[in-house]
Design a protein that fits this description.
- The structure holds two protein chains of two kinds.
- By secondary structure, chain A is mostly beta strands.
- Chain A is built from no helices and twelve strands.
- In chain A, strands 2, 5, 6, 10, 11 and 12 form a six-stranded mixed β-sheet that branches.
- The termini of chain A are far apart.
- In chain B, the strands form two sheets. In chain B, strands 2, 4, 5, 6, 9, 10 and 11 form a seven-stranded mixed β-sheet that branches. In chain B, strands 1-3-8-7 form a four-stranded antiparallel β-sheet, with no helix packed on it.
- In chain B, strand 9 and strand 10 form a beta hairpin.
- The radius of gyration of chain B is 13 Å and the shape is globular.
- The model of chain B has no long low-confidence stretch (mean pLDDT 93).
- The chains are: A mainly beta, B mainly beta.
- Chains A and B meet through strand 5, strand 6, strand 10 and strand 11 of A and strand 5, strand 9 and strand 10 of B.
């Protein structure tokens, strides 16, 4: 079975600083990987996804993520954080070939942005 | 396209009562998913439908939980004899068959007192 670990429960960065959120997954084959963002009391919005091909994927809101098979990681990055990026971020993995396309989520990283 | 709608947004119920939530997916999506998210955790898969057929259920879905999607459009999730441990955000999502990256609704937050 697949699993996802997000080692950082909380991260605080200053506005304008760069950001990296860590995600490690466990899955026996090539996974499908996702990052979602959730604002308080809201549902989840898809930031980006990786299925195959270029290991650096671009998403919405200026986010990008890099798939590193050797490290079983899919870290999320943004070069300059805005106050509106404060939210909870979830990494998720889907099993390739899974007919139901269910996702397994990590526990999330709460991002706080200092002015 | 109005996105995925969930109703109600919030529900407070007494322990032992039954509750029902509704999800209206994006109209052309034929897959619909239910996830549960407890405080401070990521969402956990509960069940999914393809059209009106319920194709998989998680072991998290005890026999007090039942979900339907009667005409392959909206779906309902019912919890009977609610317990305090049922307090959570219940999220609905939809997509096409074979697609990844669902569209989530805003969720229904259930509080059992």
């Amino acid at each position: 079975a697949q699993s996802v670990t997000q080692p950082d429960i909380h991260i605080t960065v200053s506005e304008g600083a760069s950001l990296e959120l860590r995600c490690n997954y466990s899955y026996g084959a090539t996974p499908y990987l996702f990052w979602y963002v959730q604002s308080p009391g809201q549902g989840l919005q898809l930031l980006l996804k990786y299925f195959s091909g270029d290991t650096l994927v671009q998403g919405i809101k200026g986010f990008e993520a890099e798939f590193k098979r050797s490290q079983s990681s899919f870290n999320l990055r943004k070069p300059s954080v805005h106050w509106s990026d404060a939210a909870e971020y979830f990494c998720a993995v889907g099993a390739s070939g899974n007919a139901g396309n269910m996702l397994t989520f990590g526990g999330g990283t709460r991002l706080m942005v200092k002015p | 396209d109005t996105g995925v709608s969930q109703d109600p947004r919030h529900k407070i119920t007494k322990r032992g009562q039954n509750v029902t939530f509704r999800c209206d997916p994006i109209s052309e999506h034929n897959r619909l998913y239910w996830y549960r998210q407890t405080l401070g955790q990521g969402p956990e898969f509960l069940t999914y439908f393809q059209n009106e057929a319920q194709l998989e259920k998680s072991r998290l879905l005890s026999d007090r939980f039942s979900a339907e999607r009667p005409k392959g459009s909206f779906s309902t999730l019912e919890i009977q004899r609610t317990e305090q441990g049922d307090s959570a955000m219940y999220l609905c999502a939809s997509t096409f068959v074979g697609a990844y990256g669902y569209t989530f609704g805003s969720g229904t937050r259930l509080t059992v007192v």
